[in-house]
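User: Second chain of the day. Same drill as before.
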Amino acid sequence: QLQLVESGGGLVQPGGSLRLSCAASGFALDYYAIGWFRQAPGKEREGVTCINTSGSTKYADSVKGRFTISRDNVRSTVYLQMNSLKPEDTGVYYCAAEYRRGYDCRYYGMDYWGKGTLVTVSS
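Assistant: Same format as last time:
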């Protein structure tokens, strides 16, 4: 069964940090670009960051310098380190995978989605 499972969400104070994980099963992560998306209450889902099969990354302007995406193909896991969190980072965070070798990652055309993990930044 092909699936992505996110974990690591929770409640954190402004300025704090969280690390999200996206574990893949049922397929080889090596050949997939991975993206992290989030959906805040009452807003549309947006692309936050992505990483291609070679490790090149892309970040939304709102998270540059604060978030870091990385991948461990041996563990079939992608991570999202989030630092200096702000209340506007609150939302459900989803990871998604696209079969895409040798090209830059993107925020559309995803083949698989996880069910999401909730991140709440509040004092």
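The radius of gyration is 13 Å.

User: Great, on to the next one.
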